[in-house]
Structures are given as C-alpha cells and as structure tokens.
C-alpha cells in the first residue's frame, strides 16, 4: 500500500506506458504487411498525451502521424516532430498558412477548402501538400458523389498551377468493426474507383489509405499503401466482440488511479453519496475516491463502474460526483492513501477501459479520450 498523500503524490492520475504504445504500433505494422503505419494521435492521443504518445508511436515504427485538428499538427511540429503529418478536419475561415509553412499534409473534402489551401500556398510562396478525402459511404466528412468530381477537377487545375501537390487520397469506413458487412466491400470498390479517377486526372498520390484500427486488424485487403489506426495504438480493441486486446497483440497503455482520501466505518442502512441511491446493507467500510466526472469518470458509472483495490474488485457505490465517488469495500482493511485503480491493462486484477465501456454502455474510445487533461499524466517506459 502506498503512503498517505504528499505534495509530490498526485491525488488522481493516469500512467501512460510508452513502451506499450511502441509495441502496439510494431504489432500493427506487422499486420499491415508492406503498408506504412500512420498513427492517429488526435484528441490528445486519445487522452494519452499528444507529443509523448506521438514519439512512442514513431519509435514503434509509425512513419506518419494523423490528427483531426490542425492545432494538434502544429503542436507536434512545435515540439520538433518532423515526421509526415496529416490533418483532416477544418471549417471555413481557418488559416492554412501555418500548416503550409510546416509542410503538413492537409486532408481536403471540399472545393472551398482546396481553394483556401491553394490561396495560403500562393501567399506563402510554397507548394501545399494536399490529400483528397473521398466519401465512399460513411456520409461524413469526405467529398460525396458529384462533389468528388468537382474536387478532383480543382485538384488537377491547382496542381498544374504548381500551388498544390496531391500527396494522397483517402477515405474512411462506416462499418470496419463488422468486417462481413456489405459496405466494407462496397467502400473498397468505390475507393478503388476514386483512386483510379484521381490518377486518370494526372494526380499521383503516394499514399492511398482507408483502414482505421478495426480494418487494420480484420480487413487486410484494405491496407493499400498505409493504414491509419488510432485506438489500437493505445492497446485497446476496436472490435471487442471479435477479440480482446491481447488476442490482437495489443497492450493497454493507460492506467487510471487515485488515492483514497478518507476511509470510514458506517453502520447498516447508511445512504451513500448524492441522493442516497446506494444504502449500506450492513456495517461496512466506505472509501472516498478523489476522481469524478470533472476528471472524465462518467456519471453513468454510478452504481456500475468497476475498480480494484489491492487487486480486489469493487463497484462504485451510489452516484459519481464532480470530483469524487465512494466505494463500499466491506471489511477489507483499507487506509487513507490506498491506491484505487479504475482501469489499466488488466493483468493485476484491475478492470480495463473496455470493462468501463461495457459497464456504462459506451466504447473504450470514449472512456480514455475523455479523461480530463487536469489529471497529471505520468509517463513510463523509454522516452518518459
Ligand atoms: C479517428 C480516425 C481514425 C482512427 O480510427 P480508430 O478507429 O481509432 O483506429 C482513422 N481515420 C480517420 C479519418 C479518423 O477520423
């Protein structure tokens, strides 16, 4: 058991195993065969911390990094990460000049955007790197139907002008987590047409890519030149019904823990936390855990969230509050300062992020990504 809190021991924290990230990428690379790996580090690397996670992924063999928002791409460049980088989610009004200056690939789904990128390139006196994003059936952010033709024509014209270089063509699956779903083949077929169409228009993309984690793990035919996994980089399975993390050679990188603030003995019949939705069935020990929904512990975990104390499993008693929740540990001897593990790799009896997702009815993506940046990240492994 760890000692009582001191100023250099955080109350609640997440530990990030950088070696797990590197080895997960190595596993993904092996599955991808000849295809390169773009590690997706959007959303602060799914809550794991952008820059350290990106460096660990590169150490594991990723040769590209991908983010949704340009600010994260610029943050990586500012930290000295010079690997090829793709950013793919922008709204009108965004200033593309910094991305053009930093040689960041810009994923474009629409004519307004390729025109704005081209203008930034003219202003900067540089050629912008552009990747065309085709909508092959997700009906989300790519160029759909006839909009693809307009985007392809604009790309060919701007490339001839010398202001852009089309470095890639990409798309995204709707049903990669159900590999037998008919759209998985249909999207591959339409993507093949879009790529051929771009090439007929004189564009010569180096990287043609469509596979997120689920496709990387279950649909090798979709690997093309590069795969684009996110969740699996962090050691979580995107297809829990088809295989757990270990079965795919993945190890969860994030462990979330907190130190008990107060431990108390209460009689039978004591209501616990707001609204007294839990009432002690007998005399018991209650442990106050200093992590709540401000830290990213879902309030939906009230009465169902699993935790481990000294390797033994307990469940959140009553409601999760903003900064804390309570656990009924029965007669287990626990002292203030004891470590409570919310989730981790699962090899010391602790729950996993997948267990939390199952308990609250969501996906592990949301559990790790929403862990608040107010919680200190403690990095372990090479490069920590
Ligand atoms: C988030 C995202 C990915 C990674 O998806 P995972 O399911 O986490 O592997 C890949 N490509 C695009 C366009 C994305 O938005």
List keywords for this structure.
alpha/beta; Lyase, Ornithine Decarboxylase, Chain A, domain 1; 9-stranded mixed β-sheet; binds pyridoxal-5'-phosphate; Alanine racemase; pyridoxal phosphate binding
Topology:
Layout: E1 12-17, H1 18-31, E2 36-40, H2 42-46, H3 50-59, E3 64-67, H4 70-78, E4 85-87, H5 97-101, E5 105-108, H6 111-124, E6 128-133, H7 146-161, E7 164-170, H8 182-200, E8 207-211, H9 213-218, E9 226-227, E10 254-259, E11 263-266, E12 271-272, E13 278-279, E14 284-289, E15 306-309, E16 312-317, E17 325-330, E18 339-343, H10 353-360, H11 364-369, E19 377-380
Parallel strand pairs: 1-19, 2-3, 2-9, 3-4, 4-5, 5-6, 6-7, 7-8, 8-9
Antiparallel strand pairs: 1-10, 10-18, 11-14, 12-13, 14-17, 15-16, 15-18, 16-17
Helix pairs in contact: 1-3, 6-7
Write structural notes for this entry.
- By secondary structure, this protein is of the alpha/beta class.
- It has 2 domains: 18-237, Alanine racemase (TIM Barrel, Alpha-Beta Barrel), CATH 3.20.20; 254-380, Lyase, Ornithine Decarboxylase, Chain A, domain 1 (Beta Barrel).
- The chain has 11 helices and 19 strands.
- The strands form 3 sheets. The protein has a 9-stranded mixed sheet. Strands 2-3-4-5-6-7-8-9 form an 8-stranded parallel barrel, surrounded by 6 helices. A two-stranded antiparallel ribbon has the order 12-13.
- The longest helix has 19 residues, at 182-200.
- The chain is elongated.
- It starts with 11 loop residues before the first strand and ends with a strand.
- Bound molecules: pyridoxal-5'-phosphate.
- The site of pyridoxal-5'-phosphate has 14 residues, from helix 9.
